[in-house]
Task: structure prediction
Amino acid sequence: MKYGMIPFFIPHVGCPHVCTFCNQSRITEVSGIGYLTPEYITSTIKDYVDAFRDDKYWEVCFYGGSFSAINPNLQRQLLLPAYEALQEGLIDSIRCSTRPDAVNDAQLELLRSFGVKTIELGVQSMDDIVLSLAKRGHTSNDVTLAVKQLRKFGFTVGLQLLPGLLGESWHTIIKTAVEISRLQPDFVRIYPVLVIENTELAEQYKAGIYEPLSLNRALQYCSFLKTWFESHHITVIRTGLQSTEELDTGHSVLAGPYEPAMGELVTNGQWRQRIEHCVDEHTEYFNNAIHSIVIDYPRNLTSKVRGLKKCNIRYFEKIYNDITFTWRENNDIATVQCSIDGMVYVV
Result:
């Protein structure tokens, strides 16, 4: 069944800190939550579902703030119309996002009593220096404890990562990948850092303290993380921010790797890294020059392997300009094969 999201944004509500990178109003195009009355939530749910109740798995999602950290009475006010819709069979599930240090027993019991099934934690990084520089107000140990708490209460667990913060490096990226895989969340989202106007990170960028990720480095980080998590049986449900008019116009993004096709490019990057790893291992083992490489792939992987606008083809022809590459569709195989001077590898 297709997934139907019914989103409600509560930008910065409940957050006890102002992180260096954060300007939720700019990202979500929402300012304040005065409009989120019970009547509005109820009518919005009905507008989304309407005659399509049986066509999708419908889920109400409260995003943007630290839901479990806001006033309990306000939580009840927001959750009640969604819970009533759940009880009536209009929707199938409720989820919210929050901070790793806002998931004690009382907070989670309240959410569970209103039918919340999934909780996403804004983790950002598992390196404590990176977290401190971003003024997150929590540590990597808080993340570990929070995941244990969520598991104790039976919630589905999602973790959100923000590669590219101040102090980030391949060392911290790998550390984050390893620590997150040990926690075994149900899913992960990966959002490369963007420099948003009216944030402390924007001031650090203007002062030359912070160097934003290039698109190429962002794709390298995200491709590695996605491959790592998938190899550890963790689903990556998104890479890159959802496109919005505010982001697309460029008025709020000062710098950073904003790309509406980020998800597709990350998948291209995964195949690029796999093929390149194959070539490097072959070269290291045989220690001789390579003359020709043939990349075979089934039709359903054509765009993923060749890359958006043939970006992978251009990459290999540029980096390995002394090797003859052939790219060909082959529907007699189920996955990608890399033939190096006649020696065939499954990628």
Residues 289-346 form one domain. The first strand starts at residue 2 and ends at 9. The chain is about 40% helix and 20% strand.
